[in-house]
Design goal:
binds ligand LXEULUCI; Thymidylate_kin-like_dom; binds adenosine-5'-triphosphate; EC 2.7.4.9; five-stranded parallel sheet; single chain; alpha/beta; 5 strands; 9 helices; about 10% strand; about 220 residues
């Protein structure tokens, strides 16, 4: 079980994670948020999970082959490696890291494969707690329409009832993350366009940074 006692030391940068059902608009929002912050002169490192490293690519393109514990281990191993190799160095450097998918995705997707939340937390033991975890969610029928129009990326997204299942499981994941002491904000993405969603995330990020600065004073 993760506890605040075995949490890694906090680093100068800010980790913001985006999760939510397939097709809700995470990647679109992440790109717009990174562009907005970069244009304002803020040092940003945009990244994605699974990572673009070989282990991450295996997980990303392997959802038809790998299931259950095997996929859970691949995603967790990739996350631990990416934290050490890419994310923590950027945080040490004081950057804002925007990460498209993180632990909430494992709670939901590996949950769909039958793993308990406890098992997912055990595999993710010691991961860096984000400064803010943003969950994008909304009306499953609207999310499903976006997903079907764009096309599914994985076996999860090709399942007929995916949006219903994921949308419900993210509500449970929020409760779970908050119980672990994570700061979580849920944004409803049913009606707002991508630019509006991104602007709301940017203002949440500014608030988090201002609060960090206030604590350091
Ligand atoms: N707020 C929005 N309103 C309407 N359409 C949107 C919105 N955000 C994104 N889209 C569109 O919905 C589709 C899915 O968006 P996107 O690929 O960003 O989702 P995602 O959550 O990253 O998906 P995945 O989980 O599969 O990576 C795309 O065609 C995108 O242009
Ligand atoms: C982070 C994470 C990812 N996955 C799987 C689910 C998808 O097949 C890919 C992500 O691709 P997308 O373009 O972002 O939809 O990886 C997973 O099973 N568990 C995870 O924690």
């Amino acid at each position: 079980m993760t506890s605040l006692f075995d949490e890694p030391r906090r680093l100068p940068g800010t980790l913001i994670t985006l999760d939510g059902p397939g097709g809700v608009g995470k990647s679109t929002a992440a790109k717009l948020v990174a562009e907005t912050l970069t244009a304002a002169g803020v040092p940003v490192h945009a990244t994605v999970q699974p990572s673009r490293a070989p282990l991450g690519e295996l997980a990303r393109h392997g959802t038809d082959t790998f299931r259950g514990m095997a996929l859970a281990c691949l995603c967790a191993a990739d996350r631990h490696h990416q934290l050490d190799a890419e994310i923590k160095p950027a945080l040490r450097d004081g950057q804002i890291v925007i990460c498209d998918r993180y632990v909430a995705s494992s709670l939901v997707l590996q949950g769909l494969d039958g793993l308990s939340a406890e098992t997912v937390w055990q595999l993710n033991h010691g991961v860096y707690r984000p400064d803010l975890s943003v969950i994008l969610n909304g009306d499953p029928a609207v999310i499903d329409h976006r997903l079907r129009t764009r096309g599914g990326h994985s076996r999860f997204e090709r399942a007929e009832d995916n949006s219903d299942m994921e949308s419900g499981l993210y509500v449970h994941a929020v409760v779970d993350l908050q119980a672990k002491g994570w700061l979580v904000e849920t944004l409803d993405c049913t009606t707002d366009d991508a630019a509006t969603i991104a602007a709301r995330i940017v203002s949440l990020i500014h608030r988090v940074i201002e609060e960090k600065i206030a604590v350091c004073r």
